[in-house]
Amino acid sequence: MRRFVLVCMIVAANLLSQGYAADSVKQQLVQQIERATIADPNQASQLLERLKPLIKPEDNLDQAEYFRLESAIYSALGYGDKTLASAVKGLDLLLKSQSVSLQNEANRDKIALMQSKLLINKADAHYFLNDYTASNTAAAEALEAAELSRNKKQIAFALISIAEMSDLIGAHDKSISLLLSAQEMSESIDDNRLKSIIFSTLGNIYVSMEKNELAIENYQKAIELHDPNNIFSINILNFNIANALYQLDKNDQSLHYLERVISDSRILNDQSSLAYAYFTRSEIYAERKEFDKALSGIEKAEELLRIIKDTNELFNLLTSKVNIYIQLEELSHAEEILVEVKLLMNELSNTIQKRDWHYINARFWAAKKDYQKAHKHALDFAFYDHKYLMNSTSDKMQRLRLEFNTKDLELEREKLERLNAIKETELTKSNSERVQYWYISIITSISLIFTFLLIYRQHKTKQVLAKLATFDALTGLRNRRSTKELLDKEFQRYLRYKDPFCIALFDIDNFKVFNDSYGHSVGDQVLSKLGKRLQPLLRDNDILCRWGGEEFLILLPSTQLKDAASLGERLLERTRRIRIDQVSADLRVSFSMGIVQVNPHSQSTDELINEADKAVYRAKAAGKNQIVCCMEYNTIGNPSISR
């Protein structure tokens, strides 16, 4: 009895592990998507499609997790609208789960953590859409949610997001202070990826401060901490280093990094990075007056930018292309490109683009020596440049008024310790409930196992009985009963569509000699070999069956009598070549066959089989080892027979 109980518990445990297998696969896939989002967002999109069938539509948390991953991928690809839409969907689903979170501490932490991640994605989306106020609000909310989750890593990410917003409004010192706090937190959890992101963000801030040497130093530290297999992120960091070197007029070093970016971007099929690298390289060549190389790079970048539909960068690239043609004094080419540049400027309708449009036009018309138009565009350029500076100052002052709800980290640590103590107490109380849950799960699993085994056994029994009722056990061919049903169906088909068919009935010659002289085992061998040898000569829709004893029947749908006779000759020739072990070579296997074709006078399949049987009898009487066909029907049941 003890052994039985132990076996049942082991089986139940196995079933439970299998039951959770789907969740395990889903969790592994989520981790792969998170890694791919950083390394290769396009691959992450493909993995997300594989995750979709595993998402439970009735589980709000499950769906929120899906939209969190989707928004992160869109954010990595730079799609502001799509990032925002997915993040909002995920946050709405989390709101529906609030009642669950109030009852379960683990769910509360999980929701807070997911909410923080979604809010960071939302902040990124607003940033891409140039809505900095909304971006700042989302980043501050992300920090609050991260603090509720008590997840140090997520708190650090929220601090990074707010630091980026602070840098955007020119509060560089505050940005660096926030990043140093995040860096202290990363040291306590020893996460190299987080450290790398912090150094990368510090590099971006130093670029905005025009401290490019410090920026390069931090980008290089980020690369050292990065996973060497994460080529995508390293490629972006190399591009940032190339840009910083370009700003420092270290063009040779910048070109070295750009060549590395171009090579890696081709491997990754990262069209955005490849386009930007070609564009930056062409600008360096243009400064060196190497215009052929510059135009070659611009052509490649232009093709890629049109594919990825980056209208803003395409405007900048075409403006640069016009500038090169002006320097080459190829003004007709420059004028053609200016037409598209104007269309893009109207589409973007941005002060910066309008400023740059008038600047390049002023240069163009000056080159054409139309100084009146050049002067007009120069005045418009000065107007939009002044407007841009005023707007920039106004935006900066407005953003500086925003308050970042960043709390003192020491107070947060104390709060974290208090909440952890409360959590431990609540977890102790819930242990008994978990034990009860596992007992119930084990009992339920055992019941399911026995039910499954019973159903499976019944299914297998039905399969065996169905096979025995349809097929002959010795030869593996269809038996008489199942073939008779097919014959009747074929006859009904003939009556409806007038599609002729034939029946070939044959009997093994001298079969009694095989049984009497060599034993029934040899007779069985003859029957089995005959079926195996003849089957390959038949079509897929032809039916060969064991009609009874040593007698076989072939149903030949859509077949004329002459074709059936020709097939019969081939079957007889194949039969004559059969050799049986322990049987004298003089004793050959053969058969006598009668073939009949359905005709307008046929009344039933029984009548046709009876006529075929008569033909077999005539073949036997004529000396066996031959075929007799019923050629014509003069009257019903009075066929003429020939060989």
TrEMBL record:
Pfam families: GGDEF, TPR_8. Residues 1-21 form the signal peptide. One of its GO terms (molecular function) is diguanylate cyclase activity. It is an enzyme of class 2 (transferase). Residues 399-433 form a coiled coil. The keyword Phosphoprotein does not apply. SMART domains: GGDEF, TPR. One of its GO terms (biological process) is negative regulation of bacterial-type flagellum-dependent cell motility. Residues 499-632 form the GGDEF domain. It comes from the Bacteria. Its cofactor is Mg(2+). TPR repeats lie at residues 196-229. The chain crosses the membrane at residues 437-456. InterPro entries: Diguanylate_Cyclase (IPR050469), GGDEF_dom (IPR000160), Nucleotide_cyclase (IPR029787), Rev_trsase/Diguanyl_cyclase (IPR043128), TPR-like_helical_dom_sf (IPR011990), TPR_rpt (IPR019734). Keywords: Coiled coil, Membrane, Signal, TPR repeat, Transmembrane, Transmembrane helix. Its EC number is 2.7.7.65. NCBIfam families: GGDEF. This is diguanylate cyclase.
